Amino acid sequence: MARRPPATGLLVRACLPFLLLLVRTATAQEPSKGSAVPLMTEALQEVVPAYLRDESSFWNLWQYSLEHDAPRGPVIRGSASLEAKTVLAPSIGAEMHLVPQDAGDVRFGTTPALQALRRDYLLDHLLPESLAPSDPRISTGVSLNTASGKEVTFTKDETGGVRVNGVAVERTVSLAGDTYVYFLSDILFDNRHRVTSAFHRHHDIDLANDPLGPPWTWRCPSLGPRHPLPQAPQAYPSPQLFQWHYRSSERLHPQSGPRRRPRSSGHRRLQDKTSHAPQPAPLE
Fold it and tell me: Where are the chain's structural domains?
């Protein structure tokens, strides 16, 4: 008599195709982590505190990415494939208006899309190969690959200034260990457009799908025809106003003498009598 397989074995055999399908689906939907962000050389680590304080947010972004996006496990330093020997850092003026000053920088976001944006932004400006500003190849044009695999070309213009993909280099810094920093006047490739688009997608508010509902439109009800307001009666000048005007005219025209009020006829007769009256003799 043949032995029946246990019920557990039958259940596993029945569910095995579905488990394989789930594993394949999860593997296909898992986003690609891409290349790791290159590390800073020992020479860069010595000067990066000053760059974090005085330079653009590129250095803060690089430091933030190394602290939050670095792969788990020990890091082997000294490997040319893991350290950035040439840094194409945008200057303060290049990143000043990248995002509004009173809003959050989307490059420091935590969503998978913003993490990918941050990683691509850094990889486009970091080179694993050293290139000194005094390299004679720059005069005729030399091309190198960034950590993201994109090509950048170093040339010199008619004034002798170095340019990277047509972007002017404001200044260069040579550090120990064949590490060089080029401060650029603009951002390379399409990273400015990508950051701006991500900012608008992240900060724009969809009022139609807001949890509180769409904004309430309220219109003031009509109160009927408007009648003109009654005007106040015109006030007549007070006697104090005439007295103030009279005294002001005396102060403004002192050469003409004070303006005396007209005398009455009785006052004139009394003044005439007193003028013809005999005057008393002076006392000796």
Answer: 42-131+171-203
